[in-house]
Amino acid sequence: MKPLIWMITVLALFSSSSVSGSYRQMKKELNTYQPPAIFSIPEAAPSATVKEDFQDKGTTGPDAFASVKPGFERDLATMVQNRVDPDTYSHIKKIAGDETALIRLLGQRVKPEEIKAIALLRNPEIRAAGEKILAEIQSFDQVMNLDDQLRRYSTFTAAVNNKVGPVKAKDSVKMAFPSPGLTALKGKIVENTVSQQMEKAAVTIKTVIRDVETVFRDLDFITRSIRITRDTIAAFDRLKDVATILYRSGKTSFQDVIKINIKLEELKESLVTLASEKKTVSIRLCELLDLPWFEVGKLESAPLPGNLPAEAGLYVQARAHRQELAALRFQVDKVAGMVEMAETMTQARTTLGFSFNDAGLVNTTGTDAPKEAFATQTMAAMGNNSPVRAWYGVSEPWLEQTRKTLSSLKNTLEAQENATDRMVRQTWFKADKNHREHLLYRDKILPMAKSALDVTTREYETGSIPFSQAIDSYTYWLKVQLTIARKNSDYGISFAELEYVIGKPLR
Fold first, then answer.
1. Do residues 229 and 274 lie in contact, with contact meaning Cβ atoms separated by under 8 Å?
2. 383 FRET partner, CA 20 to 30 A, in 6, 187, 302, 366?
């Protein structure tokens, strides 16, 4: 009898051991179960308004920012390259770091496209704007890296249960729910801040382009003025010879010769002033190009811009393309995101929170789960009857300050948009005026002044008119030529100013 009981007992133990092992294996498989890929919920596609560089790269730590930098560097480089001719830019880029080669190049001949390319590649303000963009990205490294460190700590302590203190550092889903969530709001703030710096860099670039255009036009005017003054001096020398002959023949007084000598001295002094002014403007050019001062070579004649575009269409273009307005809009979006983030953390939620899981991963299900995976009821208060949102309904001064800042920025944006219309009108009027006056002096007044000069010269040689009329004709001839040179330069400068206000090239 005893052997039979012993055999039954052994069989029962073997059976219970097998059942227990199978159950433990089933629990292990259940806890580690992963659904097939076909049943997985795909990640939502990134918003079209969010830059690709801010898409999730698998981490939010330094590695993500290392991948962001090249993207913005490429954007900045593209922004620079689009302002000049591609072939000229590629040629200048090869020697941009060699000061000797650049000085040798510009000492022979100065071309407008080349000095623009050199300025875009070497100007310190443009380089500083690029560094500000990268610095703005780095300034958010601590915030994003803190979230990354908390996730890592949560992962390392997930299986720790030392019965003292919290089981693990919880990665609450409340910090990222409801959509778009605080994480998305932080990304939006980062994007708007960096985009604002990109627009400020664009402002710096277009400012440098405008300044280079202005310097080149000023140098062109000075060069033309020097040539015109020298030609006028030669004409006065010929008139002096005529006055001397007439004086020796007794047909005029010696005062005519004296007046011509006075005019010649004035013109020679003007040459000295123009040469000094040319050096001053050349130093300004060297400043923009980040080069030591040198004697610039012959200026290549730059064609004037074509006819002005219609005024009516420029207002819409300015509001759409002006970088100052775009920077303000990004700042408005940034502050709006900050307000939304603060309201998400302080105000009552729009859901009951049944989908929240503050205890970590849902890995305790079934009949022996120590607690429910998700909440089954919502509470009106926390422990000790304290409210869930203790400060809900209270007007926080810092939040009100941010709201007022947002309202102020919106009003500032509206004021700047209205000011843009006024600036477009002023710059267009100035460019149109210079263009019309340049055509007037070049096509109508110059031929008449030349005819009057020729007639006056012949009449003075024959003694038909007094010397005062002759010298007035020569003086007016000089004035007309200098006015044409000035209007030529002013039209190019005012057109560049119009492009600066619009925020895009118009040629």
1. yes
2. 366
DSSP single-letter state for residue 387: B
Closest listed residue to residue 442, CA positions, set 488, 394, 383: 488
Question: Tell me: the pLDDT tens digits for 435-457?
Answer: 999 999 999 999 999 999 888 88
Among 73, 82, 76, 75, residue whose Cα is nearest residue 117: 82
Helix 397-440 with 311-321: angle, nearest 10 deg = 150
The C-alpha atoms of residue 371 and residue 360 are separated, in whole angstroms, by 12
For the chain, percent helix, then strand, then coil, each to nearest 5? 70, 0, 25
The CA distance from 225 to 219, in Å, is: 10
Here the tokens at position 367 are 């009949």
Provide the token pair at 488. Answer: 């030529």
Give residue 390's pLDDT band: very low, low, confident or very high (50, 70, 90). low
Other Cβ atoms closer than 10 A to 61: 18
pLDDT number for residue 173: 46
Q: Rounded distance, CA 156 to CA 168, Å?
A: 9
- Rounded CA gap, 208 and 323, in Å? 14
Residue type, 277: E
Q: What is the Cβ-side half-sphere exposure of residue 25, based on CA atoms within 13 angstroms? A: 6
Q: Which helix (H) or strand (E) holds 334?
A: helix 323-346
Q: How many CA atoms lie within 13 A of 168 on its CB side?
A: 19
CA distance 504 to 298: 29
446-461 and 181-248 helices, crossing angle to 10°: 20
**The two structure tokens encoding residue 206:** 């277009």
Number of Cα atoms under 13 Å in the Cβ half of residue 326: 20
Token couple for 119: 């300025």
DSSP notation for 206-234: HHHHHHHHHHHHHHHHHHHHHHHHHHHHH
Neighbours of 366 (CB within 10 A): 10
> What does 144-192 look like in DSSP terms, one character per residue?
HHHHHHHHHHHHHTTT---SSS-SS----GGGG-STTHHHHHHHHHHHH
pLDDT of residue 380: 63
Confidence of residue 175 (pLDDT cuts 50, 70, 90): very low
Are 275 and 299 within 8 A, CB to CB? no
The SS3 of residue 381 is strand
Contact 130, 46 (CB under 8 A): no
Give the residue from 60, 109, 48, 118 showing the smallest Cα distance to 85.
Answer: 118
Name the token pair of 5: 């009981």
Q: Report the SS3 class of residue 298.
A: strand
Distance between CA atoms of 384 and 390, rounded to whole angstroms?
A: 12
181-248 vs 467-502: helix axis angle to the nearest 10? 170
